[in-house]
Amino acid sequence: MTELSRDHSNLADAMASRRYFRKFDDIIHYLARTAVTLQAEGQLSKTHTKVLSDYLLRLNRSFKALSMKYLLVGSERSPLVNGLTMDRRDSGFPVATELLTMGNDAQQAVLHLANQPSAQALKKQMLHTILTERRSPSQLQFALSQRLYYETLTEGNLFWSRNDPQFILLDPSAEGRRQFLLHWAVYDSQVNLPVVYLMEVEDTGDTPLPYDQGRWPQAQMHLMSQSLAGLKLLTIAQGFDKDFRDLHPKQLRRYHIGPMYSSAYTHQAGPLREVLEQAATQPGQDWALAWTLETLDSHEVREERAGWFSKVEREVYALDPFGGQGADTGATRTERAIILPQHPFQVLTELNPPGFFDVRKFVVSTKGQVLSY
Predict the structure, then answer these.
(1) Which is nearest to 340 in space by CA: 227, 259, 236?
(2) In terms of domain of life, where is this protein from (predicted)?
(3) Dihedral (C-alpha) 344, 349, 353, 359: value to the nearest 10 degrees?
């Protein structure tokens, strides 16, 4: 058995696959509620909350599409022998190749739909097969699931392996320098996790950045090429600041969404394993989703010479002052959090394992409320 096969799991059982997607549907829903909670506390701005919530919505639509693709995996008449491949050790999410394949499918979705009967026509054929021919319409069920898959792809607004930078003008009425929020996201193939970036920049160019066909395409390409989980925020921000003399990154944030842990689907080690194993005694309670927020803030500006007669502004970034680790993390601060149902939270509290003291906990109550601890 290869190292890769030990880390990845194939959901070839239809029921296991459906439970997996239902679990993620709930988790993403609760995570969106958590973003609203953080906004109410003043931890996130309204704009940041809206952007983050939109990426979560897109991620949920990608999971919906994949759930349709693998709806009948393992059934007698389905040609899909292998189901969704997920990373069971490092992330609990689908492997990156699933999203790459989905992106390729999206390019040919219109062609597939043109050669298929409509969803309504397929349902009528299924009813006829059941009532008249008195047999299971399994082939028609598979055809319908694939049609719904391609329809979801054509509707767009999904989370792809690459989600190119977009912009928001932060204060249209402000005088002086223009301020933009640039945001983009990737599905990191090294860790099989969605990662969202938000960068606040000041624009001192003659033409506003989004309408400058000289700078905007280059800025987009630059940011996407630097969107690697292994790169420090300091490296990304300083590289952007150096390459674009009239764009000044004031803040850069990176959200690592995940890993997802579940005793039914992932192999976790350490205290979380015992927590989830005890929580598994109650249906639907054996999961936890972690996420990490890295933030890099500029705290001052210095001027450097750029040639004989001109100067250019350069940002000086504040690094984490605690423990002398700022240079190692490349961030001003790093915050970790976890969201989990009420029962595993109670187990976690009782066990009180080391390493969780500085992790913020968001707990889903039995009524579906998200409470902060």
Answers:
(1) 259
(2) Bacteria
(3) 80
Contacts 24+ apart (CB under 8 A), 205-209: 205/246, 205/247, 208/178, 209/167, 209/178, 209/180, 209/247
Amino acid 328: pLDDT:
74
Phi (first) and psi of residue 173, to 5 degrees: -90, -5
pLDDT at residue number 321? 65
Half-sphere exposure of 145 (CA within 13 A, CB side): 22
For residue 28, give the nearest of 69, 51, 65, 61 by alpha carbon: 61
Cis peptide leading into 259, omega within 30 of 0?
A: yes
Q: Which residues pair with 360 in a beta bridge?
A: 337
**216: its two tokens:** 């905007």
| Beta strand 333-341 pairing with 360-364 | parallel
- Give the length of the chain: 373
**CB distance 89 to 14 below 8 Å:** no
What pTM, to 2 d.p., does this model score? 0.92
Kindly give the pairing relationship between strand 162-169 and strand 247-262. Answer: unpaired
Q: H helices within 156-229, ranges in order?
A: 216-225
Taking alpha carbons only, the member of 17, 32, 20 closest to residue 284 is 20
Per the CB < 8 A criterion, the answer to whether 106 and 98 are in contact is no
Beta carbons within 8 Å of 222's beta carbon, 6+ residues apart: 239, 240, 243, 244
Question: Is-contact 294 334, C-beta < 8 A?
Answer: yes
pLDDT of residue 147: 95
Per-residue pLDDT at 297: 95
Structure tokens at 263: 């005793």
DSSP state, residue 178: E
Task: List, for the chain, all residue ranges whose pLDDT scores fall below the cut of 70.
Answer: 1-6, 76-77, 173-175, 305-310, 321-327
**pLDDT reported for residue 74:** 77
| Cα gap 170→178, rounded to integer Å | 8
